[in-house]
């Protein structure tokens, strides 16, 4: 099993001082910054574009930035985020016409490609391209908002995805996003996830480190 990664989602951070929020959550034990990009088209919400990713790099952020594109179409923004300092770039397969081409584009631009599956999208649907990915991200809420409840049937999907990744022999991170809390992270890890996006559980707390310590404790118990 690969090591566990906690990727704090800054969706519920204070955007008026985003750089400091990133510093604080990384110092508190976050491993990479998860940046949720929403276009009010693919999802019913609007967040930030590549300028904000670039601004975080200019500010001095060194940690990996895990860009989660909830936009349609994807190719132009893949290019813009690669230029703006993204590390991982993940997108939803139903947001592009030419899935293989968009994955290749991420790779050609020097970033790590990931695919994101909404709760109702079967894991088997991306079987042909699994070997081209660095990350498979399973949504455990319907995308668009922080603070929603974990969709329980995603646990079975995680098990299926874990089996598929292990059988492939490729090193693909299995990330989960939505409703991850101190109380359920151990079950989610048990189901096979190794990379955990955590938003409101961290950013609604006063002490980010206390929450991340508790998350990590649950992972090692
Ligand atoms: C939802 C986003 C998530 C979200 C996670 O569309 O992709 O990253 O911010 O937030 P929590 O942990 O609050 O569910
Ligand atoms: Zn996300």
UniProtKB/TrEMBL annotation:
Print the keywords alphabetically. Answer: Carbohydrate metabolism, Isomerase, Metal-binding
- What is its pathway? Carbohydrate degradation
Offer an example of a GO molecular function term for this protein: D-ribulose-phosphate 3-epimerase activity
- Matches recorded under SUPFAM superfamilies: Ribulose-phoshate binding barrel
Catalytic residues as annotated in Swiss-Prot or TrEMBL: 36, 177
Catalytic reaction annotation: D-ribulose 5-phosphate = D-xylulose 5-phosphate
Q: Does the keyword Oxidoreductase apply?
A: no
The UniProt record gives the binding positions of a divalent metal cation as 34, 36, 68, 177
User: Which cofactors does it use?
Assistant: a divalent metal cation; Zn(2+); Mn(2+); Co(2+)
What Gene3D superfamilies does UniProt report for this protein, alphabetically? Answer: Aldolase class I
Q: Which residues bind substrate?
A: 9, 68, 144-147, 177-179, 199-200
Q: Give the matching CDD domains.
A: RPE (cd00429)
Q: Does the UniProt entry include the keyword Ribonucleoprotein?
A: no
What does the record's cofactor remark say about binding? Binds 1 divalent metal cation per subunit.
A Pfam family the protein falls into: Ribul_P_3_epim
Enzyme Commission number(s):
5.1.3.1
Domain of life assignment = Bacteria
Q: What does this protein do?
A: Catalyzes the reversible epimerization of D-ribulose 5-phosphate to D-xylulose 5-phosphate.
Q: Which PANTHER family match?
A: RIBULOSE-5-PHOSPHATE-3-EPIMERASE
Give the family from UniProt.
Belongs to the ribulose-phosphate 3-epimerase family.
**This protein is called what?**
Ribulose-phosphate 3-epimerase
Q: Which organism is it from?
A: Gilvimarinus algae
């Amino acid at each position: 099993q690969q090591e566990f990664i906690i990727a704090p989602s800054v969706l519920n951070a204070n955007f008026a001082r985003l750089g400091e929020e990133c510093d604080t959550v990384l110092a508190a034990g976050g491993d990479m910054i998860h940046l949720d990009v929403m276009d009010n088209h693919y999802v019913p919400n609007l967040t930030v574009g590549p300028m904000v990713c670039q601004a975080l790099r200019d500010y001095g952020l060194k940690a990996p930035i895990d860009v989660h594109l909830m936009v349609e179409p994807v190719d132009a923004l893949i290019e813009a985020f690669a230029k703006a300092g993204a590390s991982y770039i993940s997108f939803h397969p139903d947001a592009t016409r030419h899935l293989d081409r968009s994955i290749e584009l991420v790779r050609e631009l020097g970033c790590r490609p990931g695919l994101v599956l909404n709760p109702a999208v079967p894991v088997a649907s991306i079987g042909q391209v699994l070997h081209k990915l660095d990350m498979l991200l399973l949504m455990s809420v319907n995308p668009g908002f922080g603070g929603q409840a974990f969709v329980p049937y995603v646990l079975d999907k995680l098990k299926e995805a874990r089996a598929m990744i292990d059988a492939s022999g490729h090193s693909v991170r299995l990330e989960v996003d939505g409703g991850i809390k101190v109380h359920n992270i151990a079950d989610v890890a048990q189901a096979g996830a190794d990379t955990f996006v955590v938003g409101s559980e961290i950013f609604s707390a006063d002490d980010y480190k206390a929450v991340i310590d508790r998350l990590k404790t649950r992972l090692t118990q």
